[in-house]
Amino acid sequence: MNTLLHMLSWLFAIILAPLLSGVINRTKALYGGRKGQPLFQAYYDLFKLLNKGAVYSQTTSWIFRAAPIISLSVVLTALLLIPIMGYRSVLSFRGDFIFLAYILGLMRFVTVLAALDTGSAFEGMGASREMQFSLLAEPIFLICLAVLAAGTGQLDLSGMIQSLWSASSPQTNAATFLLTGALIIVLLTENARIPVDDPATHLELTMIHEVMILDHGGIDLAFIEYASALKLWLFSALSIGIALPLRTGNPYMDFIIGIGGIFLTAVIIGIIESTMARLRLLRLPQMMIAAAALSLTAFIWVT
User: Fold this and answer.
1) What are the two backbone dihedrals, phi and then psi, of residue 241, each rounded to the nearest 5 degrees?
2) Which of 88, 125, 141, 246 is most buried, taking the most CB atoms under 10 A from its CB?
3) pLDDT in tens, 53-69
């Protein structure tokens, strides 16, 4: 039964990840009094891109061609490490949370390399901004995982989330509320969402993630967009596994609650994007410092 749930969690991520953007857009449309895009618009866009060929500039090398495939492969591997609602992930081993942080860093690294490989100063600007925010977000993410390891005494993600809210101390359970706030900020930063970045913008001076993929098209752009959807699913699943204390004891019921929690995260993102504006670049480090303060306070609390 557990093996079936392990594989189902991975397959559900592969199938349903693009639906998260549809939920976010429909939530924003509801707030704006609009009908909005179709719920499955992301699937239509992906299928359309998959049927198109890719065009490569003469200034690019094999790095530009390989980056979309590597990014998609990396995030598919990372999803194997993410448990759903406390049940063990497909791939679990001691120290896998460190491996997760590094493999997500590899995904960003190849995307930035591909942007620089184009020789465009515009894409280089976006790559510079991306690295600036990753310099702030990645340590916070590692501290959050370290808090879970210190509070639960486990060295694998599945063990951490499995012990959370059941075998962990009251201090650790209280610290998860601080971690949830920090992880939401990390989620918005890592996935280029408002208030960090606006995925729908086309203004040259405000683009961060979008500017790095301007030269990609066709099947390469489909791989990048799909990898981004899977990355959003990954962070949503991790956040809801930490923040939601509900455990029924029925594996299938907990699994359904976990999937519902992931889509609830998408609704929350839609509400945030409907009620906030994109922050100025100079304000973003202040937001990241607030997230760092939350994660460090949680670490001090549990230790």
Assistant:
1) -65, -30
2) 141
3) 888 888 889 999 999 99
Closest CA to 20 of 167, 239, 247: 239
Side chain identity, residue 15: I
Distance separating alpha carbons of residues 235 and 292, to the nearest angstrom: 17
pLDDT in tens, 119-168: 888 888 888 888 888 888 999 999 999 998 888 888 888 888 888 766 66
Encode burial over 269-293: b for 16+ CB neighbours within 10 A, e otherwise: bbebbeeeebeeeeebeebbeebbe
Residue 263 belongs to a domain: yes
Quote the Cα angle for 56-19-274, to 5°: 95
**Residue 133, both tokens:** 């925010």
Looking at the domain assignment, is residue 34 inside a domain? no
Residue 103 exposed, middle or buried by CB count within 10 Å (0-12, 13-18, 19+): middle
3-class DSSP assignment, residue 101: helix
Name the residue type at position 30.
L
- The torsion defined by the Cα of 24, 28, 31 and 35, in degrees rounded to 10, comes to -100
What CA dihedral angle connects 184, 185, 191 and 194, to 10 degrees? 110
Q: Give residue 217's domain range.
A: 2-27+39-302
User: Is the pLDDT at 270 greater than 70, yes or no?
Assistant: yes
Please report, as a single letter, which amino acid is at residue 26.
Answer: R
Average pLDDT on 25-37 reads 88
Assigned domain for 32 exists:
no
